[in-house]
Amino acid sequence: MTTKSVSRLLLLSSVGIGSYLAGSYVERRKTADTVCLRRDDYVNERSGNLLRTLQSKPGLPIFGTVSAASPIPAEQKSLVVSNVSRIGQIMKYGFPGLDNVRSYDDYVLSYDRRTRVAHWVFEHLTADGVKASQGVDRAKSDFKPDESVHPFFRSLNTDYKGSGFDRGHLAAAGNHRSEQKHCDQTFFLTNMAPQVGVGFNRDKWNHLERYVRKLTKDYPNVYCCTGPLYLPRKEADGKLYVRYQVIGANNVAVPTHFYKVVVMETRDNRLEMEAYVLPNQKIDDETPLTMFQVPPETIERAAGLLFFDKIARSQLSKINGKKV
Q1: Of 124, 169, 176, 257, which residue is the catalytic one?
Q2: pTM for this model (two decimals)
Q3: pLDDT over threshold 80, residue 20
Q4: 263 φ, ψ to 5°?
Q5: What does the alpha-carbon distance between residue 39 and residue 42 come to, in Å, rounded to a whole number?
Q6: Is 169 a catalytic residue?
Q7: Residues 184-194: what's their mean pLDDT?
Q8: From CA 272, how far away is CA 53, in angstroms rounded?
């Protein structure tokens, strides 16, 4: 290669490197200027004692200031600790699923925003907990929407009006009578599902609720998980379909069936399980509850949930009254 060619190559390389460095510098300055100019559009920042407001931008939700380190008022600390402890008791044997989990003072649920009905509701029952305290009366409680649910996904009392269905409790009000507040919270519509009234909600389903409550007389701790099912049916063409009615302006789903999976702790620390599936229809009052007992895994497959997953099946001494 000649001296002249080498000189040209060096000259071109110098120009290329110089252009790259100059371009990089200009772009960094532009980015810095943009951040400086627009930082206030997205970030909370204090100027003196004033908190600058957030600017609305397309596609970016605007919320109030949120801080993970927000101090808890001293008078509320004991309530928070108590609530966390209670949730730990209720969910001792695991969460069936983690979709939109909401905790109340005496029960926990997972809310299905699509159907406007809970996936599952979990309760921990004891003899003292189900005993009615003086002054506690479900007649004082009102059905009401849970305003912590986004308005798009709430069910309302108007959805049930004229539908022909009851607002059926998943966590039974009769299980939460130690305090009026606990009873009141079972009337949130997040804890309701459309149920056939006569012959089901007011009869056979109520019998099952009372049976579970009665278990606390023989077992010191009873854990109950309740929820809806949407099961397939074979139709005239021989094919299986999942069909269910919806009610109201918010299209609240009407489950085809309901389940309860119950675990009882014995006084000598053994575990027993019972599982039930009832169709959401009028049921002959003479039909024994044992007719609705099913293997727990059939409910898990149908619901897409795993119940009491901290308990190995080998740890259970009985399932549906039969020794394992």
Answers
A1: 169
A2: 0.76
A3: no
A4: -120, 130
A5: 6
A6: yes
A7: 98
A8: 56
